[in-house]
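Hi Q.,

Before the meeting this afternoon, I wanted you to have the 2-acetamido-2-deoxy-beta-D-glucopyranose prediction in hand. No need to reply - just skim if you have a minute. The sequence and ligand are here:
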Amino acid sequence: MIAFRISLLVALSNSLSAAQTEPDANSTYDVLTYVDPLIGSSNGGNVFAGATLPYGMAKAVADTNSGSNQGGFTPDGSQITGFSTMHDSGTGGSPSLGNFAFFPYASCAEDQVDGCVFPKKSRAVSYDNSTVKATPGYFGVTLNSGIVVDMTVAQHTSLFRFKFPASKQSPLILLDLTDLSDSRQDNGSISVNAQTGQMTGGAVFLPSFGSGNYTLYFCADFSGATVKDNGIFSNSRASADVKNLKISRSINGYPLPGGGFIRFAPGTTEVMARMGVSFINSQQACSNAAKEVPNYDFQGLQTTAVTAWRNKISPITVSRTGISDSTLRNFYSGIYRTMVNPQNYTNENPVWKSESYFDSFYCMWDLWRSQLPFLTILDPSSVAQMIASLIDTQKHLGWLPDCRMSLCKGFTQGGSNADNALADAYIKGISTGINWNDGYAAVIKDAEVEPYDWSVEGRGGLDSWKSLGYIPVQDFDYKGFGTMTRSLSRTLEYSYNDFAISQIAAGLNKTNDVQKYQTRSSNWKHLFKANQTSSFANGTNTGYTGFFQPKYLNQTWGSQDPLYCSNIDTNPNSVCSLQNTAGETFESSIWEYSFFVPHDQATLITTLGGPAAFVNRLNFLHDQQITYIGNEPAFLTVFQYHYAGRPALSTQRAHYYIPAYFQPTESGLPGNDDSGAMGSFVAFSMMGLFPNPGQNVYLISAPFFESVSIKSPLTGKTATIRNTGFDPTYKNIFIQNATLNGEPYTKNWIDHSFFTEGKELVLHLGAKESAWGTHVADLPPSLGKYTGFDNAALLSSDQPPELVHKAVPARPGMTLWQEPDFVAGIDMGHMHAMGSALGAV
Ligand SMILES: *[C@@H]1O[C@H](CO)[C@@H](O)[C@H](O)[C@H]1NC(C)=O
Ligand SMILES: *[C@@H]1O[C@H](CO)[C@@H](O)[C@H](O)[C@H]1NC(C)=O
Ligand SMILES: *[C@@H]1O[C@H](CO)[C@@H](O)[C@H](O)[C@H]1NC(C)=O
Ligand SMILES: *[C@@H]1O[C@H](CO)[C@@H](O)[C@H](O)[C@H]1NC(C)=O
Ligand SMILES: *[C@@H]1O[C@H](CO)[C@@H](O)[C@H](O)[C@H]1NC(C)=O
Ligand SMILES: *[C@@H]1O[C@H](CO)[C@@H](O)[C@H](O)[C@H]1NC(C)=O
Ligand SMILES: *[C@@H]1O[C@H](CO)[C@@H](O)[C@H](O)[C@H]1NC(C)=O
Ligand SMILES: *[C@@H]1O[C@H](CO)[C@@H](O)[C@H](O)[C@H]1NC(C)=O
Ligand SMILES: *[C@@H]1O[C@H](CO)[C@@H](O)[C@H](O)[C@H]1NC(C)=O
Ligand SMILES: *[C@@H]1O[C@H](CO)[C@@H](O)[C@H](O)[C@H]1NC(C)=O
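Predicted structure with the ligand bound:
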């Protein structure tokens, strides 16, 4: 298993030692001490490790030529090809952005410009791992060429500092018109100002997991040294006599290397390079840069970035008593990553004007489950801007995005999951700047109108959905078009989307719609086949009966092995993603999707044989490693024991996965961070509250700290969870009883008012599972009725056995994405499969 791979990394940065040396009281500390941006930067985590503001558009880092360089910098022994300004974080498609890299030379051979190597493929240079420094708002590395490069950022501008070894030569910095994916189209352009060396231009690129294209512009300025000469390069040759270049995409060696260069007076030891970017035009790139970084003050800019991050994260504090730095780093770095993406492109949208415009929702399928709910607690005003932006996007493009990056439509993975995100924000009272009637119209359109191209928006198969109550395998759908797979997981997701809509309808007093969409939210029942069995590949029956199965238009059952595309599916021919040869479940198995009825766990529990059988099956899912915690559908399964009256088992399971599968190391994430989704899973789990997203419900577990405080930025009130009997070795993880604001509290969940009203939850912990939160009256809300609960039988005197990690043999490269004519990749939760293809296992 990926999680047990031993990291071979040498020490990361030295930024983490401050806390140990300060003998300060434990109650006050700098939260940023515990943020390590390098966590998840290798081994398929694809985390952006560089300098950014919260939701910043400029994201500066060293780009590597790793086969898994989606986030730019991947410390896996690959080499550095340049320092670019635009990135996404944690994504699984093709590498995103990475536009307009600088690359420095201390000198060119024989002091001739052609003595420097221009093309990206040939200029890559190694670096020493021990020189890498990454802290919020800052990234630095020393190249083996002796050049020290560090960088910080403003919202749309990067500031790079190049320090050259002392010599009598002329250093050169080139600016490359490429991106990470080499997706540049025709007519990239650059103009170099002979006097100032300012470089302006732009080019058209392709999005990394979507359709269409985007144009990005730049404006580069240099400061701190005397200019010797400048010009452009095309392919492997350069000249100071030419100042303007318009370059083709080329049919060979695509895209043709091209860009600008600038040389400095002999003996120059330091140059500041400022890179402004804009989606509007290069004038705006220049004005952004001039406004945001007027005087090349590196320290001042870095301090501003650090302050911005501290303000965002410091509303959450914990008791550090007995807690290792590694645990704290895991927690705070997870929180940090929730605010790297989405990106604030306000005033940078060339397509329509809007109050606020956010991009890099990459993808809603990942974000709705815990990242956006986490931000709803910690940064509600930003969530309000994001939701307003989603609704605005629907107004202008006709549909809510399911995935969006670089101003383009991204691919839909399952349902119309922006519906869930809107519902979650709505029921938690997010309203500033949002017209909820427009929001409601947007989700209703998802539910009622089929788009022509449902591979990038809305839902397919709506005729069948309305008439049959499920998405048939091999549906007859002539109204809209998309990949005709995933009928089973789409049925389950559409069911939940409709429930989400019913929640907004309830708040807006649309009584008829509440009924209508609640009824449709029960469509999952139509695919449950009570006598379906499941066997392992070796033929041994798993012992479980009753699974979802695909169904044809004529209402007869189709068939898919419930373990197909599970984590233990070792068949190399299994196809599990957006390929048109894939099966009826997306990126996971029927086994795992069997639990995906977030709104009606009561009925699901009855359907699966009652609470004891449900717990048994959930244990089997985890213990047999059928589920894979490195992909988002697994998140809620960790905590679903709550619904069967066994909250203790959820807590136990959270400790089973954290930190074993989520280690605070470069290679420590089990899959793509997916824009911070994994980070939010860690943060919520360690706080001791996990959302059932789209509902006003947080499931209560024992926090990983003696206390956790969260100050609501909206109300200024502080919510606190305190444990008595806390044990930092995590033997006492079982809640014995609880009080909320001093009153006994037996429910195993709380609602959002806990945060906004600053309540206090006190948990008394012990080493044994107790009866707390186990009675039907204690269980979270569910559409159907809880039946068959008998706490005496459920909670026998047997205590839950200790959970032991089992090594599962690495899967032989199950195919997740294979269509060669398809440019983009896919949300690769299953990076272990990808990893083996990359030779990383
Ligand atoms: C740096 O670390 C990576 C692992 O992350 C390793 O592959 C590489 O060999 C290391 N490089 C050096 C020079 O130690
Ligand atoms: C690229 O520039 C050439 C020459 O100016 C022009 O003929 C061509 O139409 C342009 N192509 C695109 C895609 O803009
Ligand atoms: C980019 O997209 C626009 C709008 O769809 C289209 O007109 C244009 O041809 C595309 N450009 C390239 C280079 O693909
Ligand atoms: C303070 O916190 C550290 C962890 O950062 C912990 O090791 C130590 O025990 C705590 N000290 C006190 C007095 O609580
Ligand atoms: C997004 O950017 C706009 C324009 O700079 C700014 O007004 C707004 O506060 C930003 N929003 C967030 C959440 O950072
Ligand atoms: C819905 O009805 C309730 C009760 O009549 C009322 O308090 C509330 O303001 C109404 N909400 C809306 C959005 O109309
Ligand atoms: C399973 O149930 C279906 C009806 O849902 C029935 O048609 C089929 O014969 C049953 N199969 C077995 C093996 O009992
Ligand atoms: C078949 O595989 C399962 C799961 O790996 C295992 O538990 C079981 O013992 C195997 N049975 C046989 C007969 O090998
Ligand atoms: C229903 O459709 C499936 C798929 O086309 C076909 O295999 C099956 O025979 C049909 N069943 C009936 C009863 O028509
Ligand atoms: C709560 O649990 C603690 C620890 O087991 C125990 O000491 C205390 O008496 C309990 N309180 C109530 C009200 O049951």
